[in-house]
Amino acid sequence: MSTSMESFASVTTGKESLAPVAEGQVKDSESAKGFMGQLMNTTVRIHISDGRIITGQLWCFDQLRNAILLNCHETRVSAGPDQHRPLGPLVMVPGKHILKFEASRSASEAAAAAKYQEGDGPAGE
After folding, report:
1. Where do the Sm domain residues begin and end (predicted)?
2. Alpha-carbon separation of residue 8 from 80, 103, 107, 108, 123 (angstroms)
3. Secondary element (H or E) of residue 60
């Protein structure tokens, strides 16, 4: 699977609800939960507040935006070459440190399409 930055669609987290993603719009917490549920078991990248990027398979998340990832590694972006290291089979990323959440473009588009077909997309309003 390609992990170039262009192949990932991002969701920036903050105090507000999630930003628009792929072809669909995430408008409320129920839509956001459904969209995130569609991303389960896909490869994601999470940018955290100290500058690291955690990459792994999304296993679960909770109301506080804590995410649990499987088979993770971290990337430290610096002026020199990026540094990579494995983190282990199961990692919890605290939601309060998540700045940006990225999923592979194919996974995020599939999740948006699934929500669109369920009537949560622009045509179902």
Report:
1. 34-103
2. 23, 5, 9, 8, 25
3. strand 52-61
* Three-class secondary structure of residue 33 per DSSP: helix
Give the burial class of 57: count Cβ atoms within 10 A of its Cβ; 0-12 exposed, 13-18 middle, 19 or more buried. middle
Q: What is the pLDDT along the chain (125 residues), one digit of tens a residue?
A: 333 433 445 554 443 333 444 435 566 778 777 888 888 888 999 999 999 999 999 999 888 889 999 999 999 988 889 899 999 999 999 999 999 988 876 766 777 776 666 655 544 44
- The rounded distance, in Å, linking the Cα atoms of 70 and 22 is 24
Q: Phi/psi at 55 (nearest 5 deg)?
A: -120, 135
- Helix, strand, or coil here: 46? strand
Tokens 């999923």 identify what position? Answer: 103
The set of residues, in sequence order, having a beta carbon less than 8 Å from that of 85 and lying 6+ positions away, is: 73, 74
